[in-house]
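Entry for pyridoxal-5'-phosphate complex. Fields follow.
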Amino acid sequence: MTSPLPMAPDTTTRHDQHGLYSKATSVEDFERNLAAVHKRIEQACVRSGRDPAEVRLLPVSKTMDEASIRLAYAAGCRELGENKVQEAHGKSQAMADLTDLRWSVIGHLQTNKAKLVAGFAHEFQALDSLRLAETLDRRLQALGRSLDVFVQVNTSDEDSKYGLPPEQVPAFLKALPAYGALRVRGLMTLAMLSVDAPRVRQCFIQLRDLRERCRESAPAGMTLEHLSMGMSGDFEIAVEEGATVVRVGQAIFGARALPDSYYWPG
Ligand SMILES: *Cc1c(COP(=O)(O)O)cnc(C)c1O
């Protein structure tokens, strides 16, 4: 069940652009970059017969400073993805005046930092252990909050990446209704960071197929509606394969000063 669509478009990755995006320094830069990304999402939807309204663009602001984030906000961004919880929490406090700005934590979380996430995040996309689910739930219940979560899956078969092995996901999902403050929205993955487009595409196909398999055994009410997959270098391929959330940093904000090894161990 992991064969590509019969007419898989030959869309390439843009991972060769990695680190080369110019930094957005004005509201106009952000407006232009956002429009360009939305346009590319639309074109990928046209190629794959999808409705662009099904695809949510989550801008990723990790490493970007407050000034840059305020420009993004002025250009219309109302939600931001951050990889590291302390960085995200610090920013949410510094920009608490932007009351309609929502924060999504998209990176690995240690259990001892669950309390922070429970306090300020609107979404957590990297759930990968029951211990973390239990701790998050307890912290959320204490605060009277709930949280949208995605289960992170390792589709690239690289030992160093976070996320559950695909074969463990169905059983994992069955255990989640015990944690009532967690609203399970779907699955998330980081594809292989490669210019080899067919292999990148295979990661996305794998997540979509896994979702279909999980749906057969998922607890009542867990629809697994969302697939969070695709970033600056590969979001068009992800959209062609069914992404409903794409997480895009560099193509909106510009290249990051910190190396990716800081975020993605390996
Ligand atoms: C940084 C990051 C992204 C966005 O990557 P870009 O190359 O900046 O688009 C997406 N997902 C996760 C989990 C990330 O940490």
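NOTE: The longest strand covers residues 182-188.
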